## 1
Amino acid sequence: MTPVPVDLLIEARYLIPVEPYDTTLEHHSIAIRDGRIAAILPTDQARTRFNAAETVSLPEHIVTPGLINLHCHAAMTLMRGLADDLPLMRWLQEAIWPAEARHASHAFVRDGSLLAGAEMLRGGVTTCNDMYFFPQASAEAFDRLGMRAALGITVIEFPSQYASDADDYLHKGLATFETWRDHPLISFTLAPHAPYTVSNASFERIGTLADELELPIHIHIHETVSEINDSQRDFGQRPIARLESLGLLGPNLIGVHAVHLSEEDIDRLALHRCAIAHCPTSNMKLASGAAPANQLLERGLPVGLGSDGAASNNRLDLWREMLQASLLAKLGTGDASSLPAHEALRMATLHGARALGMDEHIGSLLPGKAADICALRIDSPDSLPLFDAASHLVYVLGRHNVSDVWINGQRRLRGGELLQISNTELLSIALLWQNKLRQ
């Protein structure tokens, strides 16, 4: 039989495809053609079946789908550590919003997104769902890095350096959407900030646009107790009930945080098949609480993982989010079998893809899907011995173990080194803005 030509053959010691669930393959290879997975099969068979233009041997690695950060504010990486150890509203009102009023700009968002994207790529994140101002600048940054990104058309009622009111936010965001809508890696969401910062009229317009443009809705919900109390005072409803009455709940809604949920809230989310972005580290750091992720998963909701911004988490690290999500579920339920390793990895990959409506293309390693791939080294003494590759991913390894990343079959990280931007440039960006914000 004549070998079939492919662009790339990745030979792995362990391969966890996420689909089928609870599957670990040993000594398997991924054949890639035109940016997509052509086949997954035992390595000895792959070597005879395919004639690869390039072969990458990963004999001491675990290979997974690229991770999906379902909620971040990438540009806020420039405010990493600016105001730690404060509760959410003090953190926003006393530190973050004033800093944004002074510094937010196209250059701020472009540079912050470059810094964030580089950090995520080094940690095996191949897709992020971002919510911030100046989406044109974010698009430019992620395009340069060759990273997949869903960018929020942010809507908020009060003025910022970016826009004057809700209509202006939508107008500018939709113009950016039109500019980038055919890009192979850049997509968009409608991103009303939160129920407490967006009016009913704006929500109704967003619902209409989401249907017309077939875009997900990305929104913070039920993050704090005070948010819920304020909603009941001002609208006579809990925020999720209010969103339901306005027609916003549905499979295209990604609710971020969802920490404080009643049984009725969960029933509503499940009825409308909403998705949730679980941000365990940020929620713990801001003392907001812990989302009932295990309960939401049991009701069939796609629950992905998000880092939130580096200003409220300090790291854009999905491996840490996997670990925290699993441990919180065990602690909260009193059941050590809650949210096992394979489920945590599924949250960081396939559930995030489903929330974004991208699960036909990314989120698992299957023939026909895009070749978004992450490889982690397992050859150091502090990561051995290894008895179960999946549990090792969640409970032992971390982003420092990520060695190689491909997006659409194109290598973005080789041996831990970024291929699109230098450390020298990234350090210059970080120090420039550190000095500006310090002033």
## 2
Amino acid sequence: WILTSTALVLFMTLPGLALFYGGLVRTKNILSVLMQCFAIAGIVSILWLVAGYSIAFAEGNAYFGDLSKFMLAGVTEGSLSGDIPESLFALFQMTFAIITPALIIGGFAERMKFSAVLLFSAIWLIVVYAPITHWVWGGGWLQEMGLLDFAGGTVVHITAGVAALVAAIVVGPRNGFPSKPMAPHNMTMTITGAAMLWVGWFGFNAGSEVSADGTAASAFLVTNVSASLGVIGWVLVEWLVYKKATLVGGASGAVAGLVAITPASGSAGVEGAIIIGLVGGALGFYGVAKLKNMFKVDDSLDAFWIHGLVGIWGSIATAIFISDYAMPEDYNMMTQLIAQFSAIGLTVVYSAIATAIVFYIASALTGGGRVDEETE
């Protein structure tokens, strides 16, 4: 099951996210987006085995793992992580590490140098993603604080969403934004990518149990429920506001529902998933349709509003909609909400500051992060 889940999560980036993002950009930028996703998968795979896995999951302190697993030292055919081969666990986690910086592309799509994208993604993985993974899943301080994040609401979606927003602010808006129409060029491609994300997400959420058991089955079930309600929530509010529903709205709603359930997928029941997905879809629409215009930040493909904002909602909802089977005997909702809010705040601040620093470093080393006006 974990071998299958690993393939499903990689399938989310290649080709899922690549096609989802590729269809949303203008025709002239399709190849750049596809290549960025493809190249990030290659670079992150290598960096993960060199140092990323060790920083995230090796013994260390509350903030960073040490380098005892540098180049996967000690990860042999016979070594285990829980009940599965450690090589498989490292590979499964690598697929999460691949999709997270790939999500950030949505913030600066259509205007950033390829060389800057690659250098930014490489440094960001080591400076932001790997340490936060250690904080939450590697025995770090947020895990000790009591944060509940079953499959990556904080580690993946809030981290990447905030990074995308910061990158969009720092790199500046596309030429012509917001007055010039910049409609998606291929909705068939976008809906195909969204469907692949939906299917791949079962590995993302249910695979995070790292076992084929009842919790994995429950995570599989609520993931589908939340995705379905995400579509309904987005399209319903879209129809109420604009008197019509759109295909891009349905696709985005599905992703929003999937994002919303991610941190709660191992603990929420069907009733909770219905509310989490419905609110996630509606909130995603409101962020894209209203808040984005208020802030006037050119987050090209709405990465912050769908992943960051909805990821925050999902993390909060995790404390509210916890099922009896997953609830500790001493569970207190207010205590858990404090832990969730504290972790959200710390993650937002660290991701924002570190992303800005990493972007300026990558920009300086590549002669400016943004392409010139003629190239754009």
## 3
Amino acid sequence: MTGQKKPKILIFCDYYLPGYKSGGGMRTIVNMIERLHTKFDFRVVTRDHDGKADKTPYKGVRIDDWNNIGNAQVYYLSQKSINLLKFRELIFEVEPDLIYFNSYFATLAIYVLILRRLTLLPQLSVVLAPCGELSAGALELKSLKKKIFIAHANLLGLYKNVIWKASSELEKREIERVKGSGGKILIAPDLPPRGILEKFSTEMKPRKIAGEAKMVFLSRFARKKNFKFLLEKLSTIEGDLTIDIWGPIEEKSYWEECLEIIKSLPASIKIEARGTIPHENVPEMLLKYHFFILPTLGENFGHVFLEALAAGCPLIISDRTPWLDLEEKGIGWDLELETPEEWTKVLNQCLKMDEVTYSKLSNSARHFVLRWLSDPEIEENTLTVLKSGLTNGLS
């Protein structure tokens, strides 16, 4: 595209850099811009703070103004600027060729779609990536409110003729259940960074002693992540188990429920909330653990799974993600939430594991990620979605 004007993509997302507390949906946007900025002119409109639990405005950026952040121009919205008039003004100012959302339920996306439905915007193609919000597990939380919104949105044609980006066949089926009329669904795995922990070596991992294990739970701490389910399986395990929780406590009432169970566990089980961690420090932190564990109610992709595997941490996760058949691949376990006895069995298996067996599993995890990241189709699939939006012009 040298010498040509790059197509302009305007992204509306709740959270963006310099934030790091909001999870994988934001990482997908960051990676997409980093990998594709030579092909597209990216503009981002986002909130002026980091995550739901922290409303403190960022320092070092101009609020209610454009900022050059990496390979994109970013507009940080104060709370007073989150309104229909401001969004219409920004869209007319940018004159994008395509609008991109990474949320189905976010206020920022809904406001723009209302403007579009009222024909208060020029004809623009819209790509929407729900980022796991339409999974069965996610829809079970605040289910009545979500059902009412989806019904009204379909009745009003709010999402009519958008181009949906699913990260997997599983998410495609989830979208089909709620999407309403028109539009099409394209599949493209969420874009990871080009490399993770490129200087990794097995010597960086802690020694695995039979009867002991260090596990890490890295995620926003919310009911959807299902940590209480895990706690209820720990009373019968055999060995010294450490589980460190990294990530913001988004639902304090849920944390209090979990804390009551933690207090009742035997002294051989140590669970501690470590707080938040900047994203650039995550890979090195993961190196300190043997296994990564997340009994989630549903993930559309899971950037953190790739980061954990890259750090040589086999996965212990639910089967409600695209990452399946892990045991057959020799990189972990994807377990049904309906069979809690399997979780206890695997936890005990991990505790009993010796250094030789663990090293083989850890190395398999690392090699799996290296192969996955080197697949050129990963980037091509996202390019196909964006180009489809630019050429089809559904509105």
